[in-house]
Amino acid sequence: MADEQWSVPMVVQELAASVKEPPSQYVLGEQNRLLVVDQMTESVPIIDLSRLAAADEADKLRAALQSWGLFQVTNHGIESSLMDDVITASKAFFHQPLEEKQKCSNLLDGKHFQVEGYGNDQIKTQHQTRDWSDRLHLKVGPKDEINLANWPKHPESFRNVLQEYTAKSKRIKHIILGTMARLLELEEDYFLNQFSDRAPTTVRINHYVPCPTPDMVLGFKAHSDDGVLATLLVDNDVAALQVLRDSVWYSVPTNPRSLLVNIGDFMEVMSNGIFKSPVHRVVANAETERTSIAMFYGLDPEKVIEPAADLLHQKQPARYKKVKTKDYMAGFYEHFARGTRVLDSMKV
Ligand SMILES: O=C(O)CCC(=O)C(=O)O
Ligand SMILES: [Fe+2]
């Protein structure tokens, strides 16, 4: 089956250069085109990372986690020059000729899919709606599982810049997960202790290509993220990310120098649903390309994900079934291809 022609994804950058309209496999069904977007009433919260020890800022974080699951972070400690360098190196990678990019292709022998590498999502069914974007997916930790063969050699700065960005991002994860445990009255390192030395950190660099008919496609279909927590660095000037809250899509602002952070499905389970893993998507754009760098903090494939025991009591039993990380991940990709959420299948 994997050898069927339809199951081999195309590179959207190449496709966009050769068509006037997106082919049918990319075009959304009518129900997904009804874009009810709230631009004004409320905005995604801004959290000052340097003040999270203060009760008022931690309360702001609690409110953000319970309603949005996604927030902007300022004073995060990553220099603007490093943020610019990561975006510039990522764009430079995608601007290279196809042959160069394909040196890190996610299709072995041109057709057998692996998660890591350059290309597109796996096509699991003939009816899967494809996203109008290309991706570079890399494992950036643990160190002894990094496979540099999948990492671009060009631009030359790419590897160093990504490694530096990965190292500096870790602090953000530590501060936020520590505060989240405190907010739930768990041991401060309860969430951090869930990460063994085999817990993977992965990066997905998304490259969104302009589309002549942007309303017909999505750059990234609606999904919630796997993993415990994700940080997201986006191009300053292209607001395209939207987050779903109470059935309304909200535009996520892009603020120069701030990062976005959202929690993933594993955190929704571990917090027994107190913190929400937000559904989000990226809309397409007719003129401007866009690049984003998402960093995902995952768990050891053998680890069982379950609600924290201290959060459970008679009036508040577990709302999610236990699941092994690797089984969740297998389900994640199956559901993603269909546009559904594996998390929904885990609810008690
Ligand atoms: O590009 C964005 O703004 C969002 C990307 C995203 O949701 C992801 O990589 O999971
Ligand atoms: Fe995402």
From TrEMBL:
Its cofactor is Fe cation. Keywords: Iron, Metal-binding, Oxidoreductase. The keyword Oxidoreductase applies. Coiled coil: none annotated. One of its GO terms (molecular function) is oxidoreductase activity. Residues 199-299 form the Fe2OG dioxygenase domain. Belongs to the iron/ascorbate-dependent oxidoreductase family. This is Fe2OG dioxygenase domain-containing protein. It comes from Triticum aestivum. The lineage of its organism: Eukaryota, Viridiplantae, Streptophyta, Embryophyta, Tracheophyta.
